[in-house]
Amino acid sequence: MKARDRYTKLTRGRSQFLDTAVECSRLTLPYLIQEDLSSRPTHQKLHTPWQSIGSKSVVNLAAKLMLALIPPQTTFFKLQIRDDKLGEEIDPSVKSELDLSFSKMERMVMDYINASSDRVVVHQALKHLIVSGNALIFMGKDGLKNYPLNRYVVNRDGNGNICEIVTKELISRRILAADLPELLLPQPAVNSPGDDGYKTGSDDQDVEVYTYVRKDEKSGRWIWHQEAFDKILPGSRSTAPKNANPWLVLRFNTVDGEDYGRGRVEEFLGDIRSLEGLSQALVEGSAAASKVIFLVSPSSTTKPKTIADAGNGAIVQGRPDDVGVIQVGKTADFRTAAEQMQNLERRVSEAFLVLQVRQSERTTAEEVRLTQMELEQQLGGLFSLLTVEFLVPYLNRTLHILQRTNTIPKIPKDLVRPEIVAGVNALGRGQDQQSLVSFIQTIAQTMGPEVMAKFLDASEYIKRLAAAQGIDTLNLVKSAETMEQEKQQQMQQMQQQELLKQAGQLAGAPMADPSKNPAMGRTLNDGYDQLTGNANQANPPPEGEGQEAPITEGLET
Fold this sequence. Notes:
Number of strands: 13
């Protein structure tokens, strides 16, 4: 089946969700989602809501979700050795060294994410999730790309797994003609209608390009291609592994049996509608109430033109009884509407976590943890859904790209597994650090420092603490070889000091007086030269005078 026909067929199942998404967008962010993509959007005047609570709520919730999913100053995943492989294929003694290496790889991955524009695209996709409940992200070689609901259709099986994805894009004919043969781009007939996916009339008209994505049942790989005029574009075929699919179909809330998700705005659409209506009524009523109109009696001697032309403090002829002022007298009704608006605004703000204002200057691990707990309490199992449909595929695809470009070493899948730690139950390495420090403090308090020094390895503790905090210990923590060398040097220095002390004691004794015992003097001088490393080789003592024959047999050199 052609991609255009498949898109048209699957569009019927999307109509209801798209209509709801367009209404939710009109009340919050009107530019976000429009009708089905049939022509290039023009600079038309969009609907302006009477209230700004909706837009503020969506932007605030998207920012908090972004902070919880991809924190800026910590990692959202960990690389861990599988527990069943420890002791069998991997020596448990090297686990700390491997954790340090994994921590370095995690920083490399986060540096890659921070240097890219992924966060910008993900934040835009989160706004689409909140408003429409659906979003599509494509992880290409040039970065991420977000597709709104009006530009793609999906087909799922009974378990909610993706079977098909079809996207629709409008590309300029002039741009597309540079890379395609002429037979794929028929010349348009001026002012003639076309039903082949191409709007005729000019060379600047747009061409409808469809991307058809499906999963191969035999190999399990994802395959896709692009079509224009019901013909496959040359060089558009691509494949991807099963666990590294670049097409991420996201949903906010799911309903069993539905191909598309439900947004947060749809859950509180009634309150937002009521808030919109009361805001409009209150603004228009307040404008009418603030209008001042003067009435002049038709039978009075006072002329309306005289009052209209009179300046401030002017003196005119007339009677005060001839002039009156119209008053609306709806202050009580306005007060009732204002109180109801406050109640609606409070409910909407609580639903979108607007009332919790951030007070810290920098993002800390504790703030990320509190934000995650807040989101989990308010949004239910949102983290579980976003972890399965976004974080896991996003991480797998990122690791696949970095390994393919040799940016990071190859990770053996049968030994190492990545673990997402963006949920509430774990906070990544911060949680590991707290547990490790608490364990050490408990031992020190209950058993004392002597027992802790006897049974615990200080170097292993330093390695695990550094791995828990994600700190690079290169040239920071001394290695075992360096510590052994320093120990040997310290022992040599102590031996030299002891020999010098003994030499001083011998020099103070009567039998060690060089004037009375020349041989002893030469022995002391030789010992001092050996300690200082400045033995006199130029003037050795005569052979056999004051020295003993060296004993070399049976000794190792």
